[in-house]
């Protein structure tokens, strides 16, 4: 496997190997080229150059292990920056997600140019360095034979935030669209410097994991999709395990789903290649978060698996509306059943996604019935996120969209039907912003029609293939098709659908007096009673 | 080169691997984008092209050509059964399958047709029993045959002409086994049925060993007795050892009563 020049990653995500190892402290001043080699992008070095003058810094100092200083940035308070130039680690109080940020790069550049005086670190820097030495010594002791980044599989202890990313019960990684960490209300929050350390470690791990992912993708592309190794689940599972260790749980889930595409259809090479492309896109974007616009950076970070505390999401600005429960879809991901509820705001017309999770014999959220509306605050995840958490429910009763009264007719709130072409436009607009999204909601007015050996949704503007009507059907796809055929009898009906890159899934049929939930449903033998009708 | 042509070239290269074949070169804006790729080796260029091409193809999702609409099934003038009956069917198939035959026969007798969304599930459920299958075909009407034409897995027996015996049995609610000492309850009033069972449970002359036959009694007793049966059984002393079974039987009586109410109220 090819190695890039400069520091490479061990399994903890800390950078090692090109520089002296733990316990052999040798002060070797870096060259500017070495500084550039740790930058997340050339533009990061460019951004750091104006800061690499002693006039911008106070409290500069360096010793045989660290470099530190405070840089006056755009904020009122200077940013406290420190670099471990032996173990290669960075910390900065600036809000950038880039690692290293431009302040750390500037500090390194100053040091490389011999513009940082020798000194004694402040206590906080000293503690940070000491913790790094301890952590790395323990890591070295536990893996004496090698720190080869390809030998994943064993879970490291969780990072300092105390959560390995529980999106759902028994889950080690974030779920689709990012995870929720525990609220941590039972324990005292760690001191500020420890939180910074924890964040640094997580960022380093994730960065290393993304680098590792791209190397793996590169290998796949070089050896080709005909490589028999692709048919072995271990090929994918090993990578997924390493991504979990790298705090990129959502990417790990993607990799596991991708494994299921191999050999699943006659066009599996197309499908797998497209997904590899999306992984590459996310890997590249995840390593350039600092140079992305904030909403996009948030979306990428969440998609990669950056943990967001539920409390933080619920602390955001609420999106209050009468939310129509337009569709529901269950999907097994590894050993977890994931339920998606697609909601549509009556006033805003915006879509939102609520997720619930169940391990074996646990119950999924059954409180939201398709065809009802709930007046509630939704709190969206960072970025232009569809995913949200349900906050306060306002005291109005839950109303059926279609009250069971003769002549009531479809009241406001019924997802508006639209043509297939208009639905494609809507889906395309969402994908332009976030091309990695693999499930999107839409409403259409369409009929079912035959399309070769499969089935499609059809109207006068065109057709969209149905997922589940051919060999990729999965467990519940055929049931959805049969229910759709039966309820529509071949005529056009209003539908909520879920778009996927491989076809659309019908979730609900909205007929005159009710909505019919036909979305894929979890196996009753897997989930508890909450997953049953 | 169109985006689809480029994609086909990328898939071909991906099958072989860039060690054996160079990736195609993207033109235009996509080519410019890929030219910004950090590294210029074939696999890096290939990955960048695949990522860009995938993003463009997905965001540019277009509908396929319009298709030939399906011919509709023959019209069925009967109204579909009410939503409450649909929910009840789901409940009885999971909790009280002993009521399923009566539910279907009542639906047919009352002039309803099966709610369309139920038809595939019921067809699948009654795939093997020829008599029940006939009931489903009658209840579903022309929609069942139409579905069978389009989804062969739903057509396992729908095309076979039913025998005369099967047609006769189709219209009759099948008897359930009831021991001679309880047969009289089938024609008794609700207070008598409930009282007999409640006393038997409290005195332990009836118990879990009789559960199946007691269920059969309540599933076949007079319909005007059901409310009283439920009331009496619900009033069994909570400290009585027979309370659990009494509650279960009361639930059956209530479910059957509501089921019939939903299907007979027009």
Task: Output the keywords.
heterodimer; A: 533 residues; alpha+beta; six-stranded antiparallel β-sheet; 12 helices; 30% helix; elongated; B: 266 residues; mainly alpha
List the helices and strands and how they pair.
The complex is a heterodimer of chains A (533) and B (266).
Chain A: E1 8-9, E2 15-16, H1 32-38, H2 42-48, E3 57-62, E4 66-71, E5 79-84, E6 89-92, H3 102-112, H4 123-142, E7 180-181, H5 192-223, H6 233-245, H7 249-259, H8 268-286, H9 294-304, E8 308-309, H10 310-314, E9 319-333, E10 336-345, E11 351-358, E12 372-380, E13 388-393, E14 399-400, H11 420-433, E15 440-451, E16 454-459, E17 462-465, H12 477-488, E18 493-500, E19 503-511, E20 514-517
Helix pairs in contact in A: 2-3, 5-6, 5-8, 6-7, 7-8, 8-9
Chain B: H1 3-16, H2 28-35, H3 42-59, H4 83-95, H5 100-109, H6 119-125, H7 130-140, H8 142-150, H9 164-170, H10 180-183, H11 190-202, H12 211-220, H13 226-234, H14 243-264
């Amino acid at each position: 496997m090819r190695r890039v020049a400069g520091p490479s990653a061990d399994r903890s995500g800390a950078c090692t190997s090109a520089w002296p190892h733990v316990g052999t402290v040798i002060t070797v001043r870096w060259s500017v080229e070495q500084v550039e080699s740790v930058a997340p992008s050339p533009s990061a070095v460019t951004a750091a150059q104006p800061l690499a003058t002693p006039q911008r810094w106070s409290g500069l100092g360096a010793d045989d292990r660290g470099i530190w200083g405070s840089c006056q940035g755009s904020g009122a308070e200077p940013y406290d920056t420190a670099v471990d130039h032996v173990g290669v680690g960075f910390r900065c109080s600036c809000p950038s997600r880039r690692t290293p940020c431009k302040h750390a790069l500037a500090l390194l550049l100053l040091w490389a140019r011999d513009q940082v005086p020798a000194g004694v670190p402040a206590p906080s820097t000293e503690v940070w360095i000491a913790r790094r030495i301890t952590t790395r010594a323990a890591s070295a002791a536990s893996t004496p034979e090698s720190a080869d980044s390809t030998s994943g599989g064993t879970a490291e202890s969780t990072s300092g935030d105390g959560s390995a990313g529980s999106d759902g019960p028994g889950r080690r990684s974030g779920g689709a669209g990012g995870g929720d960490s525990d609220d941590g209300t039972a324990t005292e929050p760690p001191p500020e410097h420890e939180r910074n350390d924890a964040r640094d470690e997580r960022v380093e791990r994730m960065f290393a994991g993304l680098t590792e992912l791209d190397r793996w993708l590169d290998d796949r592309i070089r050896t080709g999709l005909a490589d028999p190794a692709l048919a072995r689940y271990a090929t994918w599972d090993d990578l997924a395990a390493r991504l979990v260790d790298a705090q990129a749980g959502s990417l790990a889930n993607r990799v596991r789903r991708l494994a299921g595409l191999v050999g699943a259809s006659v066009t599996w090479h197309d499908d797998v290649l497209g997904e590899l492309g999306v992984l590459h896109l996310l890997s590249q974007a995840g390593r350039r978060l600092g140079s992305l616009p904030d909403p996009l950076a948030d979306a990428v970070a969440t998609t990669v698996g950056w943990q967001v505390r539920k409390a933080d999401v619920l602390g955001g600005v609420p999106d209050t509306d009468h939310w129509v429960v337009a569709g529901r879809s269950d999907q097994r991901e590894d050993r977890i059943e994931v339920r998606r509820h697609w909601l549509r705001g009556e006033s805003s017309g915006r879509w939102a996604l609520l997720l619930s999770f169940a391990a074996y014999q646990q119950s999924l959220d059954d409180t939201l019935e398709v065809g009802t509306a709930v007046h509630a605050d939704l709190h969206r995840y960072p970025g232009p996120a569809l995913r949200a958490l349900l906050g306060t429910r306002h005291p109005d009763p839950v109303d059926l969209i279609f009250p069971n009264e003769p002549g009531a007719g479809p009241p406001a709130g019924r997802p508006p039907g639209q043509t297939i072409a208009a639905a494609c436009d809507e889906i395309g607009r969402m994908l332009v912003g976030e091309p990695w999204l693999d499930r999107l909601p839409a409403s259409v007015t369409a009929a079912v029609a035959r399309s070769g050996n499969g089935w499609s949704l059809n109207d006068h503007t065109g057709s969209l293939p149905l997922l589940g009507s051919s060999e990729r059907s999965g467990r519940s796809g055929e049931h959805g098709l049969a229910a759709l055929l039966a309820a529509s009898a071949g005529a056009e009906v209003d539908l909520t659908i879920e778009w996927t890159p491989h076809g659309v899934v019908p979730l609900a049929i909205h007929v005159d007096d009710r909505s019919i939930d036909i979305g894929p449903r979890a196996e009753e033998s897997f989930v508890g009673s909450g997953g049953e009708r | 080169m169109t985006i689809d042509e480029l994609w086909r070239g990328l898939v071909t290269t991906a099958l072989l691997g860039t060690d054996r074949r160079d990736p195609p070169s993207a033109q235009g804006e996509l080519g410019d984008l890929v030219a910004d790729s950090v590294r210029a080796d074939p696999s890096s260029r290939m990955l960048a092209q695949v990522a860009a091409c995938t993003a463009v193809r997905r965001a540019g999702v277009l509908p396929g050509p319009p298709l030939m609409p399906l011919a509709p099934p023959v019209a069925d003038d009967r109204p579909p059964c009410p939503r409450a009956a649909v929910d009840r069917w789901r409940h009885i198939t999971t909790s009280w399958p002993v009521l399923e035959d009566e539910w279907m026969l009542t639906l047919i007798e009352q002039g309803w047709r099966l709610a369309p969304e139920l038809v595939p599930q019921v067809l699948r459920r009654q795939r093997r029993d020829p008599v029940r299958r006939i009931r489903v075909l009658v209840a579903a009407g022309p929609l069942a045959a139409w579905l069978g034409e389009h989804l062969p897995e739903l057509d396992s027996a729908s095309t076979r002409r039913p025998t005369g015996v099967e047609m006769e049995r189709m219209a009759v609610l099948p008897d359930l086994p009831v021991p001679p000492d309880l047969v009289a309850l089938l024609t008794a009033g609700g207070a008598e049925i409930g009282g007999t069972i409640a006393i038997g449970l409290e005195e332990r002359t009836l118990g879990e060993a009789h559960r199946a036959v007691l269920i059969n009694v309540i599933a076949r007793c007079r319909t005007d007795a059901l409310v009283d049966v439920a009331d009496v059984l619900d009033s069994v002393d909570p400290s009585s050892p027979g309370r659990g079974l009494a509650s279960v039987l009361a639930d059956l009586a209530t479910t059957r009563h509501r089921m019939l109410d939903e299907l007979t109220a027009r």
